[in-house]
Amino acid sequence: MGAEQLEEFRHQVLKIEQQAADLTAGLTEAQFNWRPAPEQWSIEECLAHLIIVGQWEARAIEQAIQDGRARALTGNGPFHYGTIERFIVDASAVGPDGRPRRRFSSPRTFVPLHGQPITAVVPTFRHLQRQLGILIDGAEGLDLARVKVKTPISRFLKLSLGMMFAQIVAHEQRHMAQALRVRENLPA
Question: What's the confidence (pLDDT) of residue 137?
């Protein structure tokens, strides 16, 4: 069951990488950085935000995997996760209409710079997705419920490794849907 869960996370990460490639294909710098309104993010800002958060999470996951291996926290599943963890993942997700289930403001440390070039952001995002895939592979055989990962949400909160991967996928899907809405509304 654990291997199936990891395979699903791997599939979602690759799918999001492809969505980003499709989303940004043929865009000019102006289109990539266009904001629908001054307080709304551009496609660039959506991807750059995912990079900032994802790099933080990747470091935390790498440390958690090392700690889990050192402590021999192995298991095959099925894994069961707590109510709070499931709530956090659900809060990050998009609903059936492609809109976020809940609205949040990003902490300042995760707000991206506006106006970054497409040639820097897109390859960095694709690299992050591949890095996440490597981390998912590295989690093989670990107990996805018992290995705990620090979160960027709060220094007091840790998520299980399985729920951290689920939260990353939900968060990325949320901002990919946001970026797609921007793309659909680009001026002619």
Answer: 96
